[in-house]
Amino acid sequence: MCVECGHTFRSMTLLSETAAHPAAVERVPTTRRYLMCEPKYFTVEYVINPWMDPDQPVDTAKAVEQWTALKETYERLGHKVETIEPEPGLPDMVFSANSGTVVDGRVLGSRFRAPQRAAEADHFRRWFLDNGYRDVVMPERINEAEGDFAWTGEVLLAGTGFRTDPGAHAEAQETLGVPVVSLHLVDPRYYHLDVALFVLSEAHDGRRAEIAYYPAAFSEGTQRVLARLFPDAVICTEEDAACLGINAVSDGRNVVLPVEATRLAAVLTARGYEPVMVDISELRKSGGGPKCCTMELRG
Q1: CB 241 within 8 Å of CB 212
Q2: Angle 3-20/262-270 helices, nearest 10 degrees?
Q3: Would 240 disulfide with which of 23, 87, 174, 264, CB 3.0-4.6 Å?
């Protein structure tokens, strides 16, 4: 049986089971702390991923409006949102997830592959130092932070294939002191881990972490790894991925998703999660969704 067909069959089975027992697992939200950057200077003036088209008009005011609504959504859900001041000439600084990974108060900064974004890393480094973080390490290898790193509460899932160097995975393990599992991305549309996978609930009190992911974004070997580690994962479809629906943020119960991700929202509802839909369409013109705009500050 091929890997893709196996995932499809398992997805249908899971849908049936969760629809029959939507309250089988109690979903408990946990308060989070996020770092965000207003898209004051947002535009699309270069191409570093398949979503970007400088010839397509961009409405910066609308981007700010959508970002503000996302920030207010987090605050309404009880989360704390910190902000960093945007810098002229850095239109992608709004995608704060790409600029740092924080676990237990330890910070691993970023090192961008694209020269257009390189200066962002130092602005975030200074923010961490100015806000009381002392254990801050800047990487030697290309590392696009939470764009390619996802913390499950037990292990750090680490993407590679388009942006983050494989060697950065070992660097993350040494710096953050957590075990790392390498995952290989193969579809250039889903160039970061956070547009192909997200953590729905972290491991806690003996309960395993739960994730959602789009299998076709990963190599066959990585698909087998994910199926082994997360047998009860939510299996996403091309429909979910194509609207950047997998670029989502979960607090263990509430899942913030793009408004277009209606199929994924229905699956999550059947699992006992609460989808919270937001419009992030303007920022998607640069390949970003809710998660791209959101760095989690853990500890």
Answers
A1: no
A2: 60
A3: 264
